[in-house]
Design goal:
The protein is α/β, with parallel strands linked by helices and about 500 residues long. It has 19 helices and 15 strands. A seven-stranded parallel β-sheet has the order 3-2-1-4-5-8-9, with helices on both faces. The protein is elongated and about 70 Å long.
């Protein structure tokens, strides 16, 4: 067999290589980390010469293709090019006029996911004829079932643990013939027959992807271990069971993601002064002043600055841990003029704003809505990055922070465990501050450790930061991630699917 043809199916992507297809330069539809991961994997695979193809909804408005440009003759020409390229657009008007990937209405997102999968199953897979199909999250989770029916190996990647449920009759109403592969789906309770399932036995989408896929992977090795070992009560039993089954059978892996290469302090245009691991002290100070000004913090370049760039989501990210000790932190380190800056959205945004106002923390603590440019500046300005997650499938912000010389303060979980180890300056080991127990005392202990490091002699502190930045730049790359996926594709092809009954 020659070079295998790989079809990556994703509902979002942040960029594509310019030579990949005639519309690659327009492809940007991002809602979260999945977009960056998909983009990085496609680009890295393309750079190493893989025969990689992409299936994605045709978000005309987000792709900046104006309706006036899409006259019928141009549209025919536009589509006639696609079979010779590697970008394959799922066509339906449900995608055409969107200005964001996901709607605030869950039913609209569910409908879009079915339409997307319909187009992939009915049109894109027959056209591409892939050797491997790589699907991502619940929005693509029926495709592995159809792939198994067709004898095509599929990889199913879990970026998060969200799922939805549909009845077969609902799925079929969208144009997907589930009679072809209904037995490869995962139902709420054991199915008796196709007819029995159609109207009263819901299909669990994420569990179906895990159940039907030839191979599954999580986006960090430790997150897979934690699920299989029974950690994280929020994970549905169906998901844990299927991951355990795949792991026991030897068809489960964990592959760590890597941040977008644009996150590099040497070239990041959002910074007021660029730098690298060889020279950073003066440049980080300049960025700190600029960030403090934009955040309405006191302009104190020597103040220890803690930065929160993640969603303010108490189900996962731990903002309640920080809010619970916010006032005491500022008071405890008043002599150091400790500052905390949050650039993030989420339900705890108002809570932090109320604390700042009621406790008169203006100048020491500031919160702003998420803005990518401001967030990038925050990485460059800060001394420490806060990420006390309850669970973390992978996480990218801690890797970005390390590249920018902002040392992460994290809980020992998931992808954080795989990327951050507790700093021991005396041995020149570690790269951050790690706590175990998910409570305010644990977070406070890690922050105290960070402040101990902050008080070390400048030359010794700088030497450690230089080492940490250099290691992160080498370690967290898309090329390394792509190499692991290529190795996994090769292993999948070397372990054929069992024949479909």
């Amino acid at each position: 067999m020659g070079t295998p043809r790989i079809l990556i199916v994703t509902p979002e992507i942040s960029y594509l290589p310019e030579n990949l297809g005639n519309m690659a330069q327009h492809m940007r539809a991002k809602a979260g980390g999945l977009a960056d991961v998909s983009a990085s994997l496609v680009s890295a695979l393309y750079r190493i010469g893989a025969d990689v193809h992409v299936a994605i909804p045709n978000y005309r408005r987000m792709f900046k293709i104006e309706a006036s440009q899409l006259i019928e003759s141009e549209l025919r020409l536009y589509h006639s090019k696609l079979p010779d390229d590697r970008i394959h657009l799922a066509e339906d008007r449900t995608f055409y006029y969107r200005d964001q990937v996901y709607s605030s209405y869950s039913q609209e997102n569910q409908h879009s996911s079915l339409v997307f999968q319909r187009e992939v199953i009915n049109n894109i897979i027959p056209r591409v004829r892939p050797d491997i199909i790589h699907c991502n999250d619940w929005m693509t989770a029926m495709i592995p079932a159809m792939a198994r029916r067709m004898g095509i190996p599929s990889l199913f990647t879990i970026h998060n643990i969200h799922t939805v449920k549909f009845l077969l009759e609902h799925i079929e109403a969208s144009g997907i013939d589930t009679a072809e592969f209904w037995q490869h789906l995962y139902y709420e309770y054991p199915p008796e027959s196709y007819e029995q399932c159609r109207s009263n036995n819901p299909v669990d989408m994420l569990a179906s992807g895990l159940f039907a896929a030839h191979w599954i992977n999580t986006v960090s090795p430790s997150f897979l271990d934690e699920i299989v070992e029974g950690e994280h009560a929020a994970i549905p039993p169906s998901i844990r069971t299927e991951l355990q089954n795949k792991r026991h059978a030897g068809y489960a892996s964990g592959i760590l993601n890597a941040p977008d290469p644009s996150y590099h302090p040497e070239s990041d245009t959002a910074l007021v002064s660029n730098y690298n691991s060889d020279h950073f002290e003066k440049e980080k100070s300049k960025n700190k002043k600029a960030f403090q000004k934009r955040m309405r913090l006191d302009i104190r370049p020597d103040a220890p600055l803690f930065f929160w760039p993640s969603r303010l989501d108490p189900m996962q990210k731990g903002p309640e841990l920080l809010s619970g000790i916010l006032t005491e932190l500022v008071s405890a380190y008043k002599d150091d003029s400790l500052q905390i800056a949050l650039v993030a959205d989420g339900e705890y945004h108002a809570i932090f704003q109320d604390i700042i106002t009621l406790e008169n923390l203006q100048g020491s603590v500031s919160i702003q809505p998420f803005d990518e440019s401001l967030s990038r500046l925050g990485f460059a300005a800060s001394d420490f990055m806060l990420m006390p997650s309850k669970f973390e499938p992978c996480g990218l912000t801690q890797m970005i922070a390390l590249k920018y010389g902002s040392l992460p303060i994290v809980r020992d979980t998931g992808g954080l465990k795989d990327t951050v180890s507790h700093l021991d300056p005396s041995q020149a080991q570690g790269n951050g501050f790690v706590f175990e127990d998910y409570d305010t005392q644990g977070l406070r202990w890690a922050i105290d450790c960070a402040m101990d490091f902050f008080h070390r002699p400048s030359n010794k502190k700088s030497a450690e930061i230089q080492r940490i930045m250099a290691e992160a730049t080498t370690r967290f790359t898309h090329e390394q991630t792509a190499d692991q996926y290529v190795a996994l594709y090769e292993e999948m092809l070397g372990r054929p699917l069992e024949p479909d009954d």
